[in-house]
Amino acid sequence: MGTNENHRVWLITGASRGIGAELTSAALAAGDHVVATARDPRRVIERFGGSENVLPVALDVTDERSVQAAVDAAIARFGRIDVLVNNAGYGVIGAVEETSAEDVRRVYETNVFGLLTVTRAVLPVMREQRAGHVINLSSVGGYRSGPGFGIYCSTKFAVEGLSEALHAELAPLGIAVTIVEPGYFRTEFLEAGSVVETPPVIADYADTAGKVRAMARSVSLQQPGDPLRLARAVVELTRATTPPLRLPLGSDTVAAIEAKNAFVAQELDAWRAVAISTDFPR
Fold this sequence. Notes:
Blueprint (H helix, E strand, L loop, with lengths): L8 E4 L5 H12 L3 E6 L3 H7 L5 E5 L5 H15 L4 E4 L4 E3 L7 H29 L2 E6 L12 H21 L4 E8 L12 E3 L11 H11 L7 H12 L7 E4 L1 H20 L1 H5 L6
Parallel strand pairs: 1-2, 1-4, 2-3, 4-6, 5-8, 6-7, 7-9
């Protein structure tokens, strides 16, 4: 079954729950087609299987063959991919020292290397089309890191760096790239299925990472952000003539960005003389 250009074709990773599922619903409500992928697509089928505009596909972002098979299935069904949403990912809570090398590698495999694998598989399609929009889900933690989330934030910092480069490389080819930076939205992200809490607890971090652990438990499922409104904002983003490189979502993200920008400007001003003193004399 093909489609026409009036209906965008989305490929969304991690579409079985949370933001991925809300994005799938919003895209379908807008009249678009969605390749809704997940490691276990049964939840996708249960929620969206009755719609001929959705294609549930099994996809493990850490398995290159699985990724390519999903892209091939998308092309076979719809003939194109207009919007890629790299949404699959999970969090790690704990001080940097408390986080094992195994946990670090595992979260990077999904949040960074998995995103790269999916993007590399989709870009040949978009380059041939000379059109497309890559949307990479980052976080407020992709712009400003903090105690307890250092490893997770570092994966999102990596996503932001990769996305900035992709933005410059793909713009001449007619392909847009946007980093979406949600703050705290009321999803299952802070629940056990989406976040790993490091088992070792070091007492010296009780007032930093320890407080973040407690905060995460208390705020879970009480976050201020509305995932439905987030999803609608992303659909609107895909309709923009000139999409932004970054789209912060949530008043908490806006406040965090403004605070970090002010801090960086203040620190740069304080250390400007030292910063520029390291050039060769002119």
